[in-house]
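User: I'm new to structure prediction. If I give you an amino acid sequence, what do you actually give back? Let's try with this one:
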Amino acid sequence: MMGVLNHLSTLLLLSLLPPALSHVVEKFSDVPQCKSFFLKGTTPNLPGILVGGKVQDQNRYKPICQLFNNIYRFATLYDTTNRIPVFSAYTFTGPPTGPRPNQPWMIEPQLEDEMEVENYNITHQAADADYINNKVLDRGQLFPNSQAPDDTTKRSTFTLTNTVPQDRTFNKGSWKTMERNVKTTLETDCININGNIEAYVVTGAVPSKSNTLKERVNIPDLLWTAFCCKNNRGQWVAGAHWGRNKNETTVNPVTLEALEKLLNKRGHVQVFPKDCPRRHELPPNPYSLPLTPTPYH
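Assistant: Good question. You get back a string of structure tokens that encode the predicted 3D arrangement of the chain. For your 297 residues, that looks like this:
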């Protein structure tokens, strides 16, 4: 197995597509370190996609335990049909340090077969070539490097299995502001009784029906993110946001309950276990968009 991976690594490096060399598994629970990125080891419940920790269509959706420099950094459920992640899950453990690294974008060789990679044919995932010279769409990270605790973890987020085509004005505007504000909230409201910061975050994308980049990579309709943690009084704290993937001036702060209803289509969507509060008071947002249901496709 290592010989095959080493061969793939050489081919990818020659093709200027650095390999992420993560761990594609059948279930996140197969890897204990990977399971730890989910609160109480419980993965999101997404009807038709992931139910009770089991992938519903194993030919299409691939759990990836994102391994970088021999350490598991976060977890991603990847949609090989739309060529974007369904979500990335990670823990926020403290104030990030250091600047954004100069890291080449990586792909995941385990999503392809050897012959495809040898012929530079990246079939089941996005490639960097899909984004080159695009002045409208960014490589939008679901696990943002700005929330990673150290340089090596920041670098691990630069895998295209962690990115979606994101409207540039949205990515660099309201979504970036939201990520910064959430980071501040996690740093202040998620200090537990032991004085440590430990928050669980899941960020996902809802694919569009037919909007694509290079007729290959789905351009999602909206992005969402949610967190859950305990504060220094031992109380559970949760929050969520979502925004449309276009030039919007705001990202909507919502309750966890409202986000789960927004994502619901054919059954019960649950991002976090029941410990996390579904309702809480939110400050008024005069620019908030109506919660029009935009379910997973």
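You can read the tokens as a compact description of the fold. Here is one thing that stands out. The longest strand covers residues 71-79.
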